[in-house]
């Protein structure tokens, strides 16, 4: 695959990566409420979701989803419901006062939620079956080209999401630990996820 093709593909998908959506808002909310460790765990889960998309695209299964509005809409609304569930859960936690304790964050829980957030996000599927095919040449191996382009997209996500996660995690690290601040940060994080769910539903 030519370098020019990769650069053009990068110039196309990077603005999409930077567009606020469920992925960015989930990582931001985790960084804000859980610090640097939670932000990177969320980033890992998001990337695992996109890696799954990449494998499906290479196998041609994404094309099947593209040809079925029912399957696509099902994925979309399951994603909306899941992000909305995360938002409500965080907002309810922010409403109720409780004795503040610094508890270790479950790695498996954060990664799992992040994985579902990206895997159920139609934006990722659109990248793979609406944008990526335009950069593939039929004279070469479609699967290999798909994996190379997917790696380019995922690398962009790792860098951009990593920077965003660290930015919000730095806000977490600067605050004093108290129940009041916990409720504020969880309220802000819940609001961000609510915005993500609304945006996903209206897309």
TrEMBL record:
Keywords: Amino-acid transport, Cell membrane, Membrane, Transmembrane, Transmembrane helix, Transport. The chain crosses the membrane at residues 6-26, 47-71, 109-131, 143-164, 184-202. It is found in: Cell membrane. It comes from the Bacteria. It holds the Pfam family LysE. Its main location: membrane. It is a multi-pass membrane protein. InterPro entries: LeuE-type. One of its GO terms (molecular function) is amino acid transmembrane transporter activity. The keyword DNA repair does not apply. GO terms for cellular component: plasma membrane. This is Translocator protein, LysE family. It comes from Providencia rustigianii DSM 4541. The lineage of its organism: Bacteria, Pseudomonadati, Pseudomonadota, Gammaproteobacteria, Enterobacterales.
